[in-house]
Amino acid sequence: MKRQAPSSAAALIIEITRGNIVESEHQVSIAVVDVRGQSVMAFGDMKKPIYLRSSAKPFQALPLVEQGYAESLKISSQQLAILCASHAGTDRHVEVVREILEKNDLSETDLQCGSHPPNDRNTAARLLSMGEPSLPIRHNCSGKHAGMLLYSRAVSEDIQLYLQQDGKTQQAILDVFSEMVEVPKHEIKVGIDGCSAPNFAIPLPAAAFGYARLMDPSAMGEARGKSCNRIVEAMTSHPEMIAGIGRFDRELMQAVKGRLLAKGGAEGYQAIGIPPNQISGGSALGIAIKVHDGDRGKRAISVTTLAVLRLLGLITAEEQANLAAFDERPLFNYSNIAIGNIRLTDQSRIRLQEAYERI
Questions:
Q1: Do 200 and 56 meet the contact criterion of CB atoms below 8 Å apart?
Q2: Residue 179 phi/psi, 5° resolution?
Q3: Which of 27, 210, 218, 232 is deepest in the core (most CB within 10 A)?
Q4: Which residues contact 183 (CB under 8 A, 6 or more apart)?
Q5: 136-194, pLDDT tens digit by residue?
Q6: Can you tell me the distance from the alpha carbon of 72 to that of 106, in angstroms, rounded to the nearest whole number?
């Protein structure tokens, strides 16, 4: 169904204070779209193409599942989760990726994601102290790349070409992504991600719509529906595979016991999938959020996400308390002295409430 193009409203503002002065601000755009393609809430520019970055991973795994290869290759739920993950490079994460590669006669040397120190600080410190190099399998996208290699092998593509934009693997992913978000392929902007895989830029409402359909694929046929359901089940059942300890996606999905799907991306991107019957009206929802300055300190994205979930009644008081480290909160310096706050501005809070009252 064609999405309504919501009129653009000003972005919301997350402010950082020091004393009684606002020291810095983050502008945040938000799109909330239901599975029928109707806009539920919109703040910011709803037409600008924005890269999903790692929030695209569930869609990138979809061809492998939909075409039956995940089943024929006996990919477990836990393994499927790490194909959609931005994992922390811990020994357990590496073990799961290695299991996928080895049982399918693939090697760590086949991964073309590059390398960086593990996101898990303890693992990174241990490897550094031992003088061990950062290997591609510890890259946070190594699971995604393992899935792409599986697909490439399954369709008889030269696996050395699995990242080529015009190759079988990447074209299959682009086809599926285009169908899920209902944006024609020629309108999708394609760039190269940090892990060297193609990535997609589309307007926030289209991405939110894709996540709503991921959560309720009932209108897209049996094969697509079963595949989306399997990916959602894997991600929500194994948040420990999706991200490391202390990362927002993992902590949020664990706090709500898998009642929603969370997948963030670099440069201040966050996607949330809400299954049917969680809000009044019963429709599945997709939420796409972009912090325009990239949110390198990872302060604004979680505060914004929790504000939206709270407003929509999708998170309980107990769950909020368990996620206090990610919510509006005081800021402390290195001497543990409270020096300011991170919070939604009063004006943004009012505008968010007004938008909710119009639903």
A1: yes
A2: -65, -40
A3: 210
A4: 202, 206
A5: 999 999 999 999 999 999 999 999 999 999 999 999 999 999 999 999 999 999 999 99
A6: 16
Residue 8 banded pLDDT, cuts 50, 70, 90: low
**Cα–Cα distances in angstroms (integers) from residue 167 to residues 141, 186, 285, 303, 318, in the given order:** 20, 16, 33, 39, 48
In the structure encoding, which two tokens stand for residue 287, read together? 């939420």
How far apart (Å, rounded) are the C-alpha atoms in residues 40 and 286?
10
pTM (two decimals): 0.96
Residue 193 identity: D
Mean pLDDT of the chain: 96
- What is the model's pLDDT at position 279? 81
- Interatomic CA distance for residues 225 and 352, integer angstroms: 33
State the virtual CA torsion across 137, 143, 144, 147 in degrees, nearest 10: 110
What does the DSSP 8-state code read for residue 113? S
What pLDDT, on the 0 to 100 scale, is given for residue 280? 72
Q: Other CB atoms closer than 10 Å to residue 7's CB: what's the count? A: 8
In the numeric block, which tokens belong to residue 99?
């299991």
- SS3 of residue 18 by DSSP: strand
Which residue shows structure tokens 């061990």?
132
- 195-237 pLDDT per residue, tens: 999 999 999 999 999 999 999 999 999 999 999 999 999 999 9
Q: Where are the alpha helices (DSSP H) in 41-196?
A: 57-66, 69-72, 77-83, 91-102, 121-130, 142-154, 168-181
Phi/psi of residue 193, each to 5°?
Answer: -75, 175
In Å, how far from its chain's centre is CA 149? 21
27 DSSP β-pair partners: 13
* Cα dihedral 78/79/84/90 (nearest 10): 80
| Cβ neighbour number for residue 20 with a 10 Å cutoff | 6
Number of neighbouring beta carbons within 10 Å of residue 183: 21
Within 10 angstroms of residue 98's Cβ, the number of other Cβ atoms is: 16
User: Rounded to 5 degrees, what are φ and ψ at 4?
Assistant: -70, 140
- pLDDT for residue 5 is more than 80: no
